[in-house]
Amino acid sequence: MSLQNILKYKTVLLGEISVGKTSLISRLMYDKFDDSYQATIGIDHFIKTMYLGDTTIKLQLWDTAGQERFRSLIPTFIRNSRVAIVVYDITNRSSFTKVNSWVRDVRNECGEDIKVVIIGNKVDMDSSRKVWPEEGEELATKLNAIFMETSAKTGSNVQAMFKKIVMDLYEQKVPVKETSTHLNINYVTTSVGSSCAC
Amino acid sequence: MHKEPLDMLQQLSDFYRDNSELYSSFDINSYEQLTASEMAQFVLSVPQKLDVVLEDKSLEITPLGSFEIWSENLFRIEKDVVRTDRNHSFYPSIETSDPSEMISKCPKMGLLRDILMTFTSSFPNNEPGFVQGMADLCSPLLIHIEDESEAFWCFAGLMNKKKENFNNDGAGIKRQLELLRKLLKVMDLPLYTKLNEIGSMNLFCAFRWILVLFKREFPFEQTMKLWDTCFSNYYSTDFHIFICLTIFETHRNEIIGHIEDTDELLCFIHGLSNKMDSDAILASAEDLFLQFKKICKAQGCLQEGRLDLEKVLGSF
After folding, report:
1. How many CB atoms lie within 10 A of CB A198?
2. What is the CATH class of B171-313?
3. Is the peptide bond between B128 and the residue preceding it cis, with omega within 30 degrees of 0?
4. B80 CA to chain A: closest CA distance, Å?
5. Please, which pLDDT band fits residue A162 given cuts at 50, 70 and 90?
């Protein structure tokens, strides 16, 4: 194990307050949902480890606070990100209208090469929907981004979304590569095993 | 007539309470669909009443501006109120994911919202406005005091002390992180050097500690003990910086031995949340403080009275 290839992909989650950024990460990491998650202060960091054949993939997830006030702190941490997941809440129109500016900001900071994924979250609350999937799709096409709708609450599409991101990156084969044997502390490791093997 | 800011807060508090029905009946998510007369009723009532309440013209709020600001603050505050100290028995568990509905079913959450709304609405130009983290500081006061108006005044007092944490430009937090950086250099040069080597000299991992005063790092009651210690100002008004130092010192060997970059440091530090012992941290912080005082004495820069950390560190 100790000398295997390790690929690290830095991924940042952005979007307005309370759209479900932390909940999406929690669903991916621990497969659970808790609607009393505290507001993220500043920035948080998680690592999801996945295995693709004999390659270990570390998806480094940067969870950010949605409030504009904290935006000045974000750039330091999102530089060199490979993926930006911009999340909006399908029941909150204004969180959708701000997707544009989040995408613009992240491209300014990380360059045009960053893979952008636009996520409409909270599809479990379809009866209060204010943003239609077609609108998300249209915006994503316009912004040259991938689009998906998810529910961190029910888990719908969450694993699939992250898996798609990892597979796309892996297939591009331009990873930041490193061989590492150093000790990891407090990292949660989960195998997606055979379902993700290619 | 000149009014003290706190007088205005009291009046605004009364104003908001008297008019709470007006705001609670207002669905801010759908204000665009309001009829013209409903819109007019809302928009017009706010500044007129505020004009009566606030004689100081500097606090005059333009009708549309006030509406936008109130709605935005209300939206953000409600989103945060329903996810603050939710595991504390003070707030009953309610089965709904809609913030407004949850608050309407839980009067205590309503109190927290009203205190935060009153507070954030009492400043001109919405500065600082509602900033995430404020609910973390306000909720414990309400839990302990229970009375709305007293909790409000305590919160206003606390925010007066901690207002630099919520400045728009982040200068207040930067100032405190700079103190921590200088203190680390004096107290533990090898650790300071290590943090420098791994590019973590911005000490961003301590941002949350300072912004919400360790509220996310310890269980509720332990945090209260830390707050009591800090607020007593017994050793220094910046004793919380020594608590930050202590957390770094407690884990210095892991940091020096194993951490290789800023990302890992942030992950490691945030991973300590709710795994630390506040009593041990407080005891060590006191030790470190007394050690620091000795160093100051040896350097000849110890002043009389309570230690002014910024001044003392400036002379190193």
Report:
1. 8
2. mainly alpha
3. yes
4. 6
5. very high
pLDDT at residue A33 is higher than 70:
yes
Select from B83, B258, B266 the Cβ nearest to the Cβ of A38.
B83
Q: How many CB pairs under 8 A join A and B?
A: 93
**Closest Cβ opposite residue B84 in set A38, A72, A130:** A38
CA B274 from centroid of its chain's CA atoms: 19
Q: Which of these, A118, A130, A128, A59, lies nearest to A85 by C-alpha position? A: A118
The candidate with the shortest Cα–Cα distance to B181, out of B41, B75, B316, is B316
Between the alpha carbon of residue A184 and those of residues A188, B257, B286, the distances in Å are: 9, 11, 31
pLDDT for position A54: 86
Domain boundaries, chain B: 1-168, 171-313
Highest mean pLDDT among B97-106, B117-126, B203-212: B203-212
Give B61→chain A minimum CA distance, Å. Answer: 22
Pick the CATH number of B1-168 from 1.10.1740.10, 3.10.580.10, 1.10.8.270, 3.30.70.20: 1.10.8.270
Q: Do A17 and B254 touch (CB under 8 A)?
A: no
Å between B316 CA and nearest CA of chain A: 29
Q: Which two tokens stand for residue A120?
A: 């409409």
Average pLDDT over residues A101-111: 92
Residue A80 CA to residue B202 CA, distance in Å, equals 18
Please tell me the pTM assigned to this model.
0.81
Asked if the C-beta of B96 comes within 8 angstroms of chain A's C-beta atoms, the answer is no
Residue B40 or residue B301, greater confidence: B301
A46:B135 CB<8 A? no
Judge whether B213 is closer than 8 Å to chain A, CB to CB: no
Please indicate if any CB of chain A lies within 8 Å of the CB of B76: yes
pLDDT tens digits, one per residue of A78-87: 888 999 999 9
Would you call B258 and A186 a contact, using CB atoms and an 8 Å cutoff?
Answer: no
What is the model's pLDDT at position A196? Answer: 35
CA distance A108 to chain B (A): 20
Axis crossing angle, helix B107-120 with helix B63-81, rounded to the nearest 10:
140
Mean per-residue pLDDT of chain B = 82
